[in-house]
Design a protein that fits this description.
single chain, 307 residues, alpha+beta, Transcription Regulator spoIIAA, Arc Repressor Mutant, subunit A, 14 strands
Length: 307
Amino acid sequence: MEMDPRLLTTEKIRRYAAMGVKRASLGIQDFDPHVQSCINRIQPFEKVRDCVGALRDEGIERLNFDLIVGLPEQTPETVLETVEKAVSLDPDRFSVFGYAHVPWMKTHQKLLEVYRLPDARQRFEMNALLGAFLKTAGYDSVGMDHFAKKDDPLFKALDTKTLRRNFQGHTDDDSDVIIGFGLSSISSFGGAYLQNMTDAPEYRQAVEKNMFPVKRGCVLAAEDRRRRSLIEEIMCYFTADLNAYTDIPHLRDSTDAALAALEQDGLLELDGSRLTVTERGHPFVRIVAACFDPYFQPCETRHPKAV
């Protein structure tokens, strides 16, 4: 369950535990008071520390922390201080995401443009700094943007080739069905996606009327499902045998030019049908995966930056 430390109380945590919740993901973002003030998310380290203690006291012991790079006024120093404090609380996993500045979708983000926003190079450097610190602290990378302890189930899934990728990130859960609860959450089925409403009053009204609070959906064709499998394999393992996906029409015809350009940049290697994302290319794996997504058309008014 994803939890906001600012909204947690001992009673809420006790009720979550009684419901059977065993894992929690806490949105940390950045512990620096100035950065928190800029993004209007005030949650002191002491508050998060107390939440972690209360969760563990109630038996919710498997914890993930979300960290974000690229936030307004963020610096390498604030990132390093944040990850040092976060590691001191000893979570099992970290998820490290880039801040998506998409004011054309989320108009309130325009308010953040009065602050200094790190550019792509600074974001890249802060992400590398954070990843290096986590590795020295005993967390190794799993797939893309995830770090976990060696005894975490994600590593077993990595070894047994059962690692998955869904809207929540990497998981060792092999279910094809995910049911999302809450605003904007996405449910995933074998052949379809559904996204809940993003407006709180609209969501509440639908629930009170015993209606599913669904805003939109998408049914997948057979080719969509196969492309999803290929993209998931690349994101989990940084490699895939394209010959295993010859049932996707015109797969190589539509991607060879883009893959060749990325290979020339040293981001991937092609050995016959075997595609491998290089170590240098790991931070850019989204760009590699996008080559196989026919619906993805890079456009500033639709997507956040990949880096």
